[in-house]
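Notes from hallway chat w/ T.B., transcribed later so I don't forget. T.B. wanted the structure written out for a chain they're using in a teaching module, and asked if we could keep both sequence and structure tokens in one place. Agreed to drop them here.
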Amino acid sequence: MTSGFAVGERLLCPTTKSSRICSASRHRRMMAVSQWMREAVETAYRQLGLPRKWTPEQTETFLNLVTERLDGKATHLSMDLAEDAIVRWRGSHHNAEPDHETTVGLHQSALQNAREAIVRQELYALIPQPAEDEEPASTPPRPEVNWEDRWRDVRYRAEPNEAIEELARTLWPQRSPMFRVKAAYLLATRAEEGRPVPTSPHHHLVPRLTPQVEEELRADGYPPE
């Protein structure tokens, strides 16, 4: 997976004789973003809890995957925010072009705003808020979720993109829309983990994955298909 940093950084660092300096500053900014996002991910999942059954390696892998995914979303969102910020800047400065320092500042502000927005939407929204008359628990309970089953849990699964959703429709064309929604979460999580994903309805993994989706539908109260 790629987070798309190169796209954003190209706007800030055109090819000049100072490209080496720009490259070094780009590396520092990328590290800072990843560190900031990783700390936000760890903070959120300390409150959400992670399954006891997971090994330290599985926990580390999961946190890395979430950090990478959210970093990518923040980077893509920041490009739109930065473009809007530059348009507004021009409008308030008689259509003048911002200089390099101003452009860098606008992009950095956009990136910070984007990653904060992504963390609120993707992480903080998952944390249950205690009722007004309820004391928050000092230590939240840790859920029992097997690593293989994390696609079933909204706190741990990967979000499918359009390509994954289309793949689910291709693999299970005769199934209900809800079946394909569940299947897309399974496929997205497997892809995020780097595990094999079927590529056609005749792939050998399809008969293995189909019962898992059917079981999840039954657990949610849907009639058998």
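Follow-up for T.B.: Residues 1-33 have pLDDT under 50 and may be disordered. Might be a good example for the class.
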